[in-house]
Amino acid sequence: MFINRKVAIIGVGKMGETLLKGLLKNKLIERENLSGSTAEKELSEKVSKKYKIKTYVDNNREMVQEKDIIILAVKPQIVKEVISEIKEVVTKEQLLISIAAATSTSYLEECLEKKVPVIRAMPNTPALINEGMTVLCPGRYAEESHLQMAKAIFGAVGLVEVIQEEELMDAVTALSGSGPAYAYVIMESLTEGGVRMGLPWELAQKLSAQTLLGAAKMVLKTGTPPALLKEAVTTPGGVTVDGLMELEEGGIRVALIKAVSRTTEKSKELSCEGEIASNQ
Ligand SMILES: NC(=O)c1ccc[n+]([C@@H]2O[C@H](COP(=O)([O-])OP(=O)(O)OC[C@H]3O[C@@H](n4cnc5c(N)ncnc54)[C@H](OP(=O)(O)O)[C@@H]3O)[C@@H](O)[C@H]2O)c1
Q: Which in 173, 234, 242, 279 has the greatest CB count within 10 A?
């Protein structure tokens, strides 16, 4: 879907650059309609040269004027500062999409001090290779047309889901936002298991990565719950069941469930702290 809109990305860091790349690569936006900002001049020049787009340093205010969509991709700690800088020039006709973790739409709406449509998005790093998972949540003033726009943007870098209950965004952050880190620990451990049994590192890494990728695709493509797919690998009295027993003994399930629960709590704590600090 070609988006005939002008887009400004505030914060062309890891995630901002990923989105920028996705938009250009998938030809969603004309290069001349895309701009980005950074805090450091050096990075700004690098981005401008690499993607041939207009970049700004220390001047988000000028950049966001007359843009249709503003993507806020800075760290949560500086969201307030950036919004203070741009709020006077932002209008209700623009759409603000924020990917800042633990930053609610109501907080952003309050900081903006006007009825600007806001959408909160939680993408993840595999977006870098178009295999991202993004969950969108509309704010009070965002309409279906705004959601469609956000879906097109994040659809360029992976799968997109929409939720209306913003309180679930902390769990989303914990599961798909932080999830790649958990997956890498599992992958790393499987690789080490293979190496321990004599496989060369490179081969062991390939086997574990492709195995997790294949297993994930089985779930996504068939819609079958992992518990049932697991049965097909587990021959009664065979080798897999012994491995599964070791996993249970090691507490892998509880560890992963607790990781998602703990991260959800942390995300909740951080969003409360941010909102309390902003009211002081
Ligand atoms: N990484 C993830 O897995 C992930 C997943 C989902 C959501 N997020 C969210 O995405 C956001 C960005 O994370 P990230 O990992 O991409 O961080 P990052 O790589 O540090 O990128 C942040 C960028 O913001 C720029 N910046 C700082 N102050 C600015 C200002 N006043 N005006 C314009 N740009 C400014 C920085 O520029 P300089 O480099 O020049 O300082 C940097 O390029 C965070 O809010 C995070 O919660 C991250």
A: 173
